[in-house]
Amino acid sequence: MVLVTVRLCFRALFLFGCAGLLVSCRVNSSPATLDPSFYRVLHAPQPELAKQKLYVIDSGDSLQVILPATYERRNFAKADYQNWVLYRTEVDVDVFTLPFKIRPSIVGFPSQLNSNFNAAIYLGRRIDFHRYSWQPVTPSFNVRNLNSRGFGYGIFAGLGSATLNEFVTQPAIPIQYEGVILDAGVAAIYDARIFNVGIALGIDYLTDTNRNAWIYQRRPWFGVLFGLNLN
Fold first, then answer.
1. pTM
2. Which residues contact 229 (CB under 8 A, 6 or more apart)?
């Protein structure tokens, strides 16, 4: 039992380490320019722009801003939009895998770390923050940086498998097999552009006739999500 627990701990640490590598990709792959779109100003030296909805065109060394309420156009040189923070919200659709689930202890059975196959479709709300800053290279030359972060929350539903045997069924079944399950729940994600990582809270529903005997039927579990951004 001790050896199994140690192995499970090492597996969890390895997976969390992979999550850290994926998150780090978000910082290194920040875009050089913003996509032309509507944004809101979270922070700007110009107080009249705070909280306003703007259409922003980023040309790389300057910004053109259109104020929809007044049809006004403004051009901002590098010195005028230092430390601006913009944000945008949108609907997020992703495909996720769940590399493992942590099932709490139940009816005298210890907590479980399951690594069966699971895949899910996620639908939620995402908010992206974009901050402009300048890194001094020489006293007369600065390099512009655009740092972006994305976060989201939403619901998911998917398909997976679970191991059925005499230990996880009451009454016990005489065979062992991989049962087909449907899972659903809520999740919070960190948007890593190409890849996403997040945490999930969900339940499983066994689709075959042993559903009433399975001790984890409709019981909550915790898990980690890795996904591919579809939009």
1. 0.74
2. 92, 94, 191, 192, 193, 194, 195, 196
